[in-house]
Design a protein that fits this description.
CATH class of one domain: Alpha Beta
Structural class: alpha+beta
Strand content: 5-15%
Number of strands: 3
Order of helices and strands: HHHHEEHE
CATH topology of one domain: Fusion Protein Consisting Of Minor Coat Protein, Glycine Rich Linker, Tola, And A His Tag, Chain: A, Domain 2
Largest sheet: 3 strands, antiparallel
Strand order of the largest sheet: 2-1-3
Number of helices: 5
């Protein structure tokens, strides 16, 4: 029994010793942690104080704004006057440019295009219309030719070439004998046939650009006819 109690006492002593050792280590760790935290805070405070001392504080000076001056009437007139002169100068310049463009003729370097087919057809139709008009004039003169009875009784025969001018309205302007038959009676009869005949106006596409035209016609006086 004594031996058992001794063992219990020794175990209790060991347990209490272990508890003391644990408390000692816990207290030592806590004190070391507290000392480290205080050292960190002191280092931070030193850094902040040094930076605040190193950085100088800028002093800002307040500058009051300048008062806005209202423009006077003279300034407004002086400011507006250049605009008017510029507008006048611009209009004058535009007019001069237009006059220069109008006065200087531009030479066209384009080549004349070939004559189209329609113009060729109109030229051919002009010749045909002119030929038809000449035939109608000859028929009119021939239908108004009168063979004088005295010339027939005396056996006068011959050919008279007459020249006459007709205007575009179909009016006879002048007439004359350019080749005589040798008999004045026959020459007068030929001129009278030209005067008595009625003529039509020129076709639109005949002798374009001419106000009148001269024609020549041979009038034959023959007893056989």
């Amino acid at each position: 029994m004594k031996h058992v109690f001794n063992n219990r006492d020794s175990i209790a002593g060991l347990v209490s010793l272990l508890l003391l050792i644990n408390t000692y280590f816990f207290i030592s760790k806590f004190s070391v942690h507290a000392i480290q935290e205080k050292a960190k805070e002191s280092i931070k405070l030193n850094l902040v104080s040094r930076t605040s001392e190193a950085l100088p504080v800028e002093k800002r000076t307040f500058i009051p704004p300048k008062p806005i001056q209202e423009p006077t009437r003279k300034q407004l007139k002086s400011n507006n006057s250049p605009v008017k002169t510029y507008a006048q100068n611009s209009t004058v310049a535009v007019k001069n440019e237009t006059l220069e463009n109008k006065s200087i003729p531009t030479r066209s370097t384009e080549k004349t295009p070939p004559q189209p087919i329609n113009e060729v057809k109109s030229i051919v139709s002009n010749k045909l219309a002119e030929g038809q008009f000449i035939n109608d004039v000859k028929v009119q003169i021939e239908s108004h030719k009168i063979y004088p009875a005295t010339a027939q009784r005396l056996g006068m025969v011959g050919t008279v070439e007459v020249s006459y001018v007709i205007n575009r309205l179909g009016e006879l302007v002048s007439e004359r004998v350019i080749t005589s038959s040798g008999y004045p009676l026959l020459d007068q009869a030929a001129l009278q046939a030209v005067k008595s005949a009625s003529y039509k106006s020129f076709p639109i596409d005949a002798w374009v650009g001419e106000s009148q035209k001269e024609f020549h016609t041979k009038i034959v006086f023959n007893l056989d006819n």
